[in-house]
Design brief:
mainly alpha, about 60% helix, elongated, TPR-like_helical_dom_sf, PPR_rpt, Pentatricopeptide repeat-containing protein, repeat
Amino acid sequence: MSEPDVVSWNALALGYDQLGHGSEAKKVFDDVENKGIRLNRVSCNGMIAKDVLARLSSFLLSKNWGLETETSGPTDNA
């Protein structure tokens, strides 16, 4: 592929996010916008889902409901 299209960028960003690299995913979306590539519904849904899940996780962790949290797995620091 000579020039990545929006589908390629979405796959890259959402892949980063699924692996726990949220800051890299956001950077990809920012880079896409800076390159003048028009984002689509998948891009927008991916960004919204990423933000909602991050906020929901923070909210749930702030509550003292005795929930177990997963301590192993992908992190943003990997």
